[in-house]
Amino acid sequence: MALFVYKFGGTSVGTVERIKSVAEKISLARKNGDDIVVVVSAMSGETNRLTAMAKEMQAQPTDREMDVLLSTGEQVSMSLLCMALHEMGHDACSYTGGQVRILTDSSHTKARIQEIDDHRLRDDLDAGKVVVVAGFQGVDEHGNITTLGRGGSDTTAVALAAALNADECHIYTDVDGVYTTDPRVEPRARRLEKITFEEMLEMASLGSKVLQIRSVEFAGKYNVALRVLSSFSEGQGTLITYEDSAVEKALISGIAFNRDEAKLTITGVPDLPGVASKILGPIADQNIEVDMIIQNIADDDTTDFTFTVHRNDYQRAKVLLDQVCGEMDAKQVTGDDAIVKVSIVGVGMRSHAGIASTMFKTLAEEGINIRMISTSEIKISVVVDEKYLELAVRSLHKAFDLESK
Amino acid sequence: MALFVYKFGGTSVGTVERIKSVAEKISLARKNGDDIVVVVSAMSGETNRLTAMAKEMQAQPTDREMDVLLSTGEQVSMSLLCMALHEMGHDACSYTGGQVRILTDSSHTKARIQEIDDHRLRDDLDAGKVVVVAGFQGVDEHGNITTLGRGGSDTTAVALAAALNADECHIYTDVDGVYTTDPRVEPRARRLEKITFEEMLEMASLGSKVLQIRSVEFAGKYNVALRVLSSFSEGQGTLITYEDSAVEKALISGIAFNRDEAKLTITGVPDLPGVASKILGPIADQNIEVDMIIQNIADDDTTDFTFTVHRNDYQRAKVLLDQVCGEMDAKQVTGDDAIVKVSIVGVGMRSHAGIASTMFKTLAEEGINIRMISTSEIKISVVVDEKYLELAVRSLHKAFDLESK
């Protein structure tokens, strides 16, 4: 007998029929004697429907009222799921974020959870009930409804698992686990039984869209065992866990990539203190997020400075950089928005030399020119021309022996 | 400068455009310097949409979860209305029943308001904000979401007006006031400037569908001045007020009618104590509501007993009564479901004799046979064959001089 937190996203509760099959999954777990807390998102399409109405009322809908509006989405799903469970003979009770009391700060539309009152949930579990909680939402200290932003239901689930000290937190999605890379690019990609939190974090931030980054960080921080599974099929999914437990002893766990990057370079910058902030300050002021940053040391008292941004921000960033170039008396600005980032991720590389050279050699053998390199303790990222994406992913997948057996 | 509570029903907030025109009405009042608290219902159609989904989940949806589900309807309307007000430059803030803290008992789907915490609303009004509150809903002492039942938004509005000591409570509907009778039956029906609470209560309970009865009772109890107006046109509507204030000095204020009645008679009942409860007990046990009750004294130790029920309950009631007839050794059961009830209502009849005789004479002159009579202090009801409904209403409307001048 264990305590699980199950999280079902919008697609998993997108229709009356799907809500019923979610109820069946829960029913099965109850018959195994497990205690279940369920976190649900709004039915798919609902958030868009509500947002469209809001935009008809107000060009830029007020954040507070937007939260009031959108939080109804999960409230609908949670009550319908409880009814389905009741119909199957299970005792179940639903709670909004405010009713649980998931206390957040007051940053409407992107609030952060501060505290969870678990006493009602524990009482219900003790009484043999399934507890169904609205994902994505909370209340601030003044009782205002807040939301955690897109994907926030994952965070709700992890936070509840931490507060209740659950055995595992199951995130049900439309994929059946975390793969060594995207199976659409490399059909021989293999589902991982386990992956560490750090690796998952790198995979998530590098464009692997399985989980919201914040929920993975949260899970790591509070030692919540996270499992990614499919809502629509059977299977064990992928367990996201700690390095110390028996993780597969692979050097590399997976290959992530990101098609949404563009790079900008400013050359001939006078090599003086404060250069980086002068260049990136105006970019940050416009809320443009910068990903990789590289500065080369040049030999004539000047330096070259390169960074990547989201492809949608490329034109705006270039205009800003051209201004900076003039003001700094730098040489010129060049850019390229036909690039991709490919990364190998694995805790194994910490203790093994030669990973980087294997990566570079593999790409060289395929004639792929590396445009930028950036590394962290457990990942190596390279920027290459976008036409090489598939070739790079497949050759690295093979070189690091990730293929399914 | 006054404080008004405005209530808008589902039709008045049924589309994005209608919500915008509600916002314009409020905007106008703000420009006059008035403080406004708004109570909104769910957008028309929304409650039916949600109920249909619930019934797909569970044959008889659980009351608690039904309340969780349906209460999202007003939450959507209230946030959209606030956005529309913001777009017009007004400061506005929305609250669910739970956020205000409209405390109710725990009778899900038909809860009763016990207490209203007005401090957030007063703070907002003091700060120059329009306050928008979800109608129809509250929370019980354990924080469970409750609803007040169909039409409960009127009750919310009246209760808020009472708690805030508002100058008037405006109920915006799709009619522009209370009429002397239904204009579809008598085109010369006249809008009343004023009507007393007691008269309104009789009019409402007799089938005049303008206001929910409970809200009128509530308004009377807490001395809230209630005004019924149209959402879609200008005008002063009808003020529902106390007898002591300057009510029009008509003998009769209006003529109400109810097409949904059926009558049942049991004859030859042994005239013994406890007869009425023996007859009506089984009817009440089946939750069949009885309206008029008449017992005639007969001359041979037996009595005749007649009552009316809703036409939908006629067959069920007849079966029950046939059983009772056998058990009591009464003579026989007869019934008629092609009858209507027509009533004249007015506080003036308290102090004026001859009202009843004028009514009976008027009907007799038209050849209308009266099948039952029942009276209260401020109304006289008669049951007639349904084919006479229009004739009865129009001849009484003329006889009591109710026509528009």
How would you describe this structure in keywords?
homodimer; 405 residues; alpha/beta; Carbamate kinase; eight-stranded mixed sheet
Poorly predicted residue ranges of chain A: none
What form of chain A results from the Cα inertia axes? globular
Structural class label of chain A: alpha/beta
Name the chain pair whose interface involves the most residues: A-B, 38 and 38 residues
- Rounded mean pLDDT of chain A is 90
- From the alpha carbons, calculate the radius of gyration of chain A and give it in angstroms: 24 Å
Describe the protein in words:
Two copies of one chain form a homodimer. The mean pLDDT of chain A is 90. Chain A has a domain at 3-173: Acetylglutamate kinase-like (Carbamate kinase). Chain A is an alpha/beta fold. The first copy, chain A, contains 13 helices and 20 strands. The A-B interface holds A 16, 19-20, 50, 53-54, 56-59, 61-62, 64-66, 68-69, 71-72, 75-76, 78-84, 86-87, 93-94, 96, 98-99, 143-145 and B 16, 19-20, 50, 53-54, 56-59, 61-62, 64-66, 68-69, 71-72, 75-76, 78-84, 86-87, 93-94, 96, 98-99, 143-145.
